[in-house]
């Protein structure tokens, strides 16, 4: 293993997986001697499927004081996080429990940072102006197999003042535990399941598409996550009550974003995430949909940088038998696009129903994606503002 492939791996989150996992919340928090909990959730699904009630019952049984706050938006807002933070401070909260998916957990992580660092504006962490070193513990009760936030170091918020979507990636953001019961995903609508499948795949491929060689175990782990996600995603999109399929997706989501599938990679790509973040920030589109809408354009723009990498993806993930790397690479891209279509996910910007995007709109997106032309994005192929513009243009074609 050469020096480029050296790595550090830190995954402190304890996983409790299986039926009834959410009922352990109270006892686990009590074991940590926490006294006051804020329970965060999003829309009504956590209420309708009963998981919120079961979590509350576990907290009551453990004798833990708690407050509940719902209404986390699908692209979580800074304003809501600050509102929740003020309530948490008044109630002297010392533990955050997120019941939901990535958006809820992103918000919980933000509130946790604010509680532990009352002297700071939490938005400064997302702008990378300050780097906190402590946070309040967070627990996760997962209801959506998608973002992998239950094991990741990432939190993403949107500041509606300027429509800025930014991330804060710190190991202190990682939840102390994750309670994962696949039955709690049964009420998800088909579109949300599709978005989750895309997010799992993108979290994996953003690490997988690299210029580096020699990370064979890491590569094969990533390929396995992709194959399992694709196979079980096809089942889950048709039957959300299929326990086996939802179990595999839920576990794949955790593995896709805890760092495992990128070990030994000096620089991960995440271009599609950056491209998609601007769409979510400006047009409030679902995160997974923003990723599938730009992936084809990105892949077609960059694959000739190293067609052998895309060819390996095509062969190992999609079973392509073509021996010519360029042809195999193209086949892998097309199979991915066709799979997204089978999930009823958008594969171009017009399918996001944003209305007609003008050249001015695309230029603005490119300007914002590169932080007003002050940075380049990506690692598989480093992209400047003009590259980003060409990708948005290609994505804007049906």
Automatic annotation (TrEMBL):
SUPFAM superfamilies membership: Dehydroquinate synthase-like (SSF56796)
Domain Fe-containing alcohol dehydrogenase-like C-terminal intervals: 197-395
Residue span(s) of domain Alcohol dehydrogenase iron-type/glycerol dehydrogenase GldA: 12-182
Database matches in Gene3D superfamilies: 3.40.50.1970, Dehydroquinate synthase-like - alpha domain
GO cellular component: cytosol
Any one GO molecular function term: metal ion binding
Sorted UniProt keywords: Oxidoreductase
Pfam families: ADH_Fe_C, Fe-ADH
Signal sequence coordinates: none
InterPro entries: ADH_Fe/GldA, ADH_Fe_C, BDH-like
Xref: PANTHER family: ALCOHOL DEHYDROGENASE YQHD (PTHR43633:SF1)
Protein name: Iron-containing alcohol dehydrogenase
Organism, as annotated: Youxingia wuxianensis
